[in-house]
């Protein structure tokens, strides 16, 4: 056994390094990076280089641990403001959406495979949830700035629907294993079991998050021990909740959500450590699942698996999304995008390992079908998310270009942080704009030489500037140190052709543009109206439909209040030549009105 120690370490560490280096190709050619990790595992496996790995139980255990790490970090990164804005639709998708999706996949499975109804429902449950790991990486690592409400809805759904899918899968596995020996499934008993499991998950998550916060803030450990403590505590929460038959995945997600939204010592260090651990967990999970698969067995099941994947992508997911989001105020373009972004990933393959570990009939078929569906989803969705978001007008055009910034945490300071900017060409400060005094610049490094800011003179491209600033001001500093953004050609289409004053009464929109707005309160401002319709907090790019027009958030303050708004005519329509001409004429009319309005104001001022 000891003779295998060094070869095993060499192989495992080598595969991780190969996966990391192949990620460069993924970024270079726009390939889904998780598909690359999975491909490395497949190529190294039994049907590739010949590495033999068939321990389903070990794969299931390691995969669960990796998923717990990923879910804790995803909760840790989620802001409460985003949660409040998107919790309703996301939870609807994570519960009702999972049931609808599982039922439709079961129907398709019963048609194309010789499965009984319980077996078809089991495959539906296995494939019913979107994958948190896959979605977080494709949405965040891709760097595409999508509207906050849409992105938050997808991220919260993917983190919250795993417990539902796991609960359904375990229940159906037990039903198939024991049949009617335990009296079958009682619907009231099933509902009570689900409520107990989810409730215990929430309780353990809140208690665990509270304890993590207290431990980090109260005790003075060696600086490098804080991330290790938090990682170990998150796994303790996961295991403790599971031990009492609660949802460990929900518990660890809630714990991360609680801790991430509380003041924490060494928070920047924790975030960097967790980012690295999440990458490692993701790589290990996909490599291991790739090693476990045998592509040679895929041929006989490939056609029905692809058919099931197509039903999932084009029928089950869209129908579930449109049913769940019907009560909420989403634009048709937003519903279309959420319908499309139904990524399947490691969770579905992990759930398909459970029948293998339990040794039930057709267990290998469950695994192979799930694997092919995941491959199809990554291939179809992974390359199309950004183009579709752009096509639907959901990508926020940048208002600030390249910003090179590093934040350094200051011990004992909760109100300021040390921020380091590298001066980029054509930024306002490089062109002579002065740094405001409230930013407290302290040091400039130029060509390897350090000097006090007062003696550095005009800042030059390539300089590093160290300054102290309150965290709420970093957005303003980004605009000062960032290169000017090259706004998209359809910027007016995104932010609206007209700029309107958000402090004006919303009732005026009905008279001027025929907008459908409430007129009960004549003093209700446009800003307050938009914030109320957006869940209390607005984000740049958010839209509020008002019949024939859309109100668009152009800019917000740190509290999420609208400080600049636009108005778009015929929102979200696919415009043809006629509509383009109408819009062009409207823009000309607006420019003329603004020009003469400005001249009139100037004449009155002169008088």
TrEMBL record:
<keyword id="KW-0813">Transport</keyword>
<feature type="transmembrane region" description="Helical">
    <location>
        <begin position="164"/>
        <end position="185"/>
    </location>
</feature>
<feature type="transmembrane region" description="Helical">
    <location>
        <begin position="369"/>
        <end position="389"/>
    </location>
</feature>
<feature type="transmembrane region" description="Helical">
    <location>
        <begin position="121"/>
        <end position="143"/>
    </location>
</feature>
<feature type="transmembrane region" description="Helical">
    <location>
        <begin position="299"/>
        <end position="325"/>
    </location>
</feature>
<feature type="transmembrane region" description="Helical">
    <location>
        <begin position="6"/>
        <end position="27"/>
    </location>
</feature>
<keyword id="KW-0472">Membrane</keyword>
<keyword id="KW-1133">Transmembrane helix</keyword>
<dbReference type="Pfam" id="PF00999">
    <property type="entry name" value="Na_H_Exchanger"/>
</dbReference>
<feature type="transmembrane region" description="Helical">
    <location>
        <begin position="191"/>
        <end position="212"/>
    </location>
</feature>
<feature type="transmembrane region" description="Helical">
    <location>
        <begin position="34"/>
        <end position="53"/>
    </location>
</feature>
<feature type="transmembrane region" description="Helical">
    <location>
        <begin position="90"/>
        <end position="115"/>
    </location>
</feature>
<keyword id="KW-0406">Ion transport</keyword>
<dbReference type="GO" id="GO:0015297">
    <property type="term" value="F:antiporter activity"/>
</dbReference>
<keyword id="KW-0812">Transmembrane</keyword>
<feature type="transmembrane region" description="Helical">
    <location>
        <begin position="337"/>
        <end position="357"/>
    </location>
</feature>
<protein>
    <submittedName>
        <fullName>Potassium/proton antiporter, CPA1 family</fullName>
    </submittedName>
</protein>
<keyword id="KW-1003">Cell membrane</keyword>
<feature type="transmembrane region" description="Helical">
    <location>
        <begin position="276"/>
        <end position="293"/>
    </location>
</feature>
<keyword id="KW-0050">Antiport</keyword>
<dbReference type="GO" id="GO:0005886">
    <property type="term" value="C:plasma membrane"/>
</dbReference>
<dbReference type="GO" id="GO:1902600">
    <property type="term" value="P:proton transmembrane transport"/>
</dbReference>
<dbReference type="InterPro" id="IPR006153">
    <property type="entry name" value="Cation/H_exchanger_TM"/>
</dbReference>
<dbReference type="InterPro" id="IPR038770">
    <property type="entry name" value="Na+/solute_symporter_sf"/>
</dbReference>
<feature type="domain" description="Cation/H+ exchanger transmembrane">
    <location>
        <begin position="16"/>
        <end position="389"/>
    </location>
</feature>
<feature type="transmembrane region" description="Helical">
    <location>
        <begin position="59"/>
        <end position="78"/>
    </location>
</feature>
<feature type="transmembrane region" description="Helical">
    <location>
        <begin position="224"/>
        <end position="241"/>
    </location>
</feature>
């Amino acid at each position: 056994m000891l003779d295998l120690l060094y070869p095993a370490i060499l192989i495992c560490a080598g595969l991780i390094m190969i996966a990391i280096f192949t990620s460069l190709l993924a970024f270079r050619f726009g390939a889904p990076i998780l598909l690359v990790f999975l491909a490395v595992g497949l190529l190294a496996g039994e049907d590739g280089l010949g590495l033999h790995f068939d321990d389903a139980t070990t794969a299931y255990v390691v995969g669960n641990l990796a998923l717990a790490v990923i879910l804790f970090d995803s909760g840790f990164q989620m802001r409460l403001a985003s949660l409040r804005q998107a919790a309703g639709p996301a939870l609807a998708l994570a519960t009702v959406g999972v049931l609808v999706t599982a039922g439709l996949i079961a129907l398709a499975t019963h048609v194309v495979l010789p499965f009984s109804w319980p077996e078809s429902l089991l495959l539906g449950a296995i494939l019913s949830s979107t994958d948190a790991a896959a979605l977080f990486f494709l949405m965040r690592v891709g760097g595409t700035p999508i509207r906050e409400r849409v992105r938050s809805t997808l991220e919260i759904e993917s983190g919250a629907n795993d417990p539902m899918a796991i609960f359904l899968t375990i229940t159906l596995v037990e039903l198939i294993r024991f049949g009617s020996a335990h009296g079958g499934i009682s619907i009231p008993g099933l509902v009570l079991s689900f409520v107990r499991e989810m409730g215990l998950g929430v309780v353990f998550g809140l208690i665990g998050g509270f304890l993590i916060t207290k431990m980090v803030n109260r005790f003075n450990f060696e600086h490098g021990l804080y991330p290790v403590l938090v990682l170990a505590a998150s796994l303790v929460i996961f295991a403790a909740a599971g031990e009492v038959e609660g949802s460990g995945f929900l518990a660890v997600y809630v714990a991360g959500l609680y801790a991430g939204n509380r003041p924490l010592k060494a928070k920047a260090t924790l975030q960097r450590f967790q980012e690295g651990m999440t990458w490692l967990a993701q790589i290990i999970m996909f490599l291991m699942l790739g090693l476990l698969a045998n592509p040679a067995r895929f041929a006989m099941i490939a056609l029905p698996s692809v058919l099931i994947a197509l039903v999932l992508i084009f029928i089950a997911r869209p129908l579930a999304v449109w049913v769940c989001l019907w009560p909420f105020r989403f634009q048709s373009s937003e519903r279309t995008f959420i319908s499309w972004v139904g990524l399947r990933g490691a969770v579905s393959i992990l759930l398909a390992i459970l029948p293998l570990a339990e040794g039930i009939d057709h267990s290998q078929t469950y695994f192979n079908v799930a694997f092919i569906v995941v491959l199809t989803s990554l291939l179809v969705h992974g390359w199309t998310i950004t183009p579709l978001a752009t096509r639907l007008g959901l990508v926020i055009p940048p208002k600030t270009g390249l910003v090179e910034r590093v934040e350094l945490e200051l011990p004992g300071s909760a109100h300021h942080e040390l921020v380091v900017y590298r001066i980029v060409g054509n930024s306002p400060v490089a062109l002579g704009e002065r740094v405001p005094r409230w930013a407290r610049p302290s040091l400039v490094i130029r060509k390897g030489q350090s000097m006090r800011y007062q003696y550095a003179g005009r800042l030059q491209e390539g300089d590093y500037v160290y300054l102290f600033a309150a965290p709420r001001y970093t957005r303003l500093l980004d605009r000062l140190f960032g290169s000017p953004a090259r706004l998209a050609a359809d910027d007016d289409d995104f932010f609206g052709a007209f700029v309107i004053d958000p402090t004006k009464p919303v009732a005026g929109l009905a008279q001027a543009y025929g907008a459908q707005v409430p007129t009960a309160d004549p003093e209700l401002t446009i800003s307050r109206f938009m914030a109320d319709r957006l869940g209390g907090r607005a984000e740049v790019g958010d839209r509020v439909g008002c019949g024939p027009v859309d109100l668009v958030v152009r800019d917000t303050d740190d509290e999420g209040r609208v400080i600049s708004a636009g108005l778009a005519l015929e929102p979200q329509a696919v415009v043809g030549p006629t509509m383009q001409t109408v819009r062009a004429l409207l823009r000309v009319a607006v420019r003329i009105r603004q020009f003469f309005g400005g001249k009139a104001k100037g004449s009155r001022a002169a008088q």
